[in-house]
Amino acid sequence: MKFRFTISAKLTLGFSVFAAVVIFVFYLTGNTLSESREINRRINTIYAPSVKLLEELDNHLVKAQQLMKQWAYVQRRDDDLERIEAMTLCTQTIPNQLARIDTVSGYWTPEQQLAKNRLFHEVSQLLMAYEDVRSFLPTFNSYEDPIGQMSADSYFIEGGHVPEALNHARDELRSLTGDQRAIMTTEIERMNASFSKLGELLLYFTVIVLLVGIISAILTSQAIVRPVNSLRTKLTNLARGIYSVHATRAGNDEIGDMAQAVERLIISFERTKEFSLNVGAGNFDMQFEPLSEHDELGKALLRMRDDLASYRHEMEEKVTQQTSEIRDQKERVTELYSDLQASIDYAQRLQSTILPSAEAIREVFPDHFVFYRPKATVSGDFYWFAHKGKKRMVAAADCTGHGVPGAFMSLVGHNALNQATKVYNKPSQVLNTVNRLSAQALRANENHLVKDGMDIALCSIDMESLEMEFSGAQNPAYIVRNAELIELDGDAFSIGSYVNGEREFSPKNFTLQTGDCIYLFSDGYADQFGGPAGKKFMRKQFRQLLTEIQTLTMSEQQSRIADRFDAWRGDGEQVDDVLVIGIRV
Length: 585
Hints:
By secondary structure, this protein is an alpha+beta fold. The chain has 3 domains: 7-207, Up-down Bundle (Four Helix Bundle (Hemerythrin (Met), subunit A)), CATH 1.20.120; 272-353; 356-584, PPM-type phosphatase domain (Phosphatase 2c, domain 1). 61% of the residues lie in helices and 12% in strands. It has helices at 7-73, 81-104, 110-136, 146-154, 161-239, 254-280, 296-352, 358-364, 403-420, 427-441, 539-549, 554-569, and strands at residues 368-373, 381-388, 391-399, 454-462, 467-473, 477-481, 484-488, 508-511, 517-521, 529-530, 535-536, 578-584. It has a 5-stranded antiparallel beta sheet, covered by helices on one side. A 5-stranded antiparallel beta sheet has the order 2-3-4-5-8. Strands 10-11 form a two-stranded antiparallel sheet. β2 and β3 (391-399) form a beta hairpin. 25% of the residues are buried.
């Protein structure tokens, strides 16, 4: 039997050699990358965090020494921010930093572990000294005791306990930091050396792969490309209607089989073409016999002839079916829209339950107006009134967003106001509590701040003494007296923009006079685009409007504010929820 060296055998042999070389290259690369990943892991999880933690501890120790020295030398109130910061550093920040260093130090060398223990001992001595200083001067009045102050001062004199312990601790920190940096540098150099070695090996194997590829290309050209080019010429001529008569030089392989098949194809081409033309012209009675039982083209032509007769009827049925499906989809979309609108309407009814009625507002402030214009069906703005003992309270709140998201935040904010005012009636205390309750409701924590917040202006008024206390998150309060506008600024941060306890809202006190008008509002009115130039209304123009309408009744003021807003907006779209509250005392 004559040996048959097929194309697949030729290709398999060539690609096997090539694949073996490539697999070996991948193996070397994989080993190098695996080692580099391990080095990179140690750098990112051990050495770099260790350096960062040690440097942060050094900064904390220096800061704590500065603050505690001021504690010893400068008499300050108990709620002074620097005293609070010093307490936090000594009792929380530095101990927490030591705990984190202790965790990562599990991967350190024994010598570094000993240095860490010495560092912890020195830091502990420092913290104990700071605790002694705080015990000598625990309160504002304790500074009047000269013995206590002298005892505290003695810790910070040159050569004293604190400077000596701090210097020892910082020496240990510098030593540990240098060790970690040196190890990290060594690891990086090791990784770079591995990559350099890999680069050299890849260069050698690239040359080998090129040589193997060139040899394979030459052999393939001799055994495959030349016969295939001959067949391609014959098929190209056949595609142009030219029947080539020259024989293809092919070996005893698949290309030789292809050459014989092409010859048979040329013979049957005319008969197949004639049948195709008749079928294409609609002559479905044309007879045709496939070349063999395996002649897929001939069978396909026969199926095409049989299918064309029923094609038009099937197409008409498909058009009818698609029309019905489109109609059903339209009905489903309409149903879904109705359900969505019903849900939004229900949300509006739910939100309306938190807004006080006109009668309830008159019981708190008889002479008032509320201009409330939501952008959508539901709103992110809401107003709140309450009567707490002698104090009468009012708030204008603007929650993040508008529509359904804003309405949800308004429910959270309204509930937080009700809860906070059960305990407090001072606006600053109320807002601090609202921030805490809002964070709890939205599950905020120190590492993931609440992104949804609330701007608010909150007033508390004693109607007997006409003493007013105000506190605001971003939003101010305006008081208009005899055509003069007085502005009480809110704090420059919002409810929900910070971790509870990090900041506190400041109180603003003001003595009112009979006839004064107080205005609380959201930013929707001033931010509305319109007018001749299509610009924002702006706060300046809003303040001018309030001074112009002060002498009008509250009802007339509301009408004037609404008319001015509609005239400014014109045919443009309302850009945000709008809320303006006016009260005359």
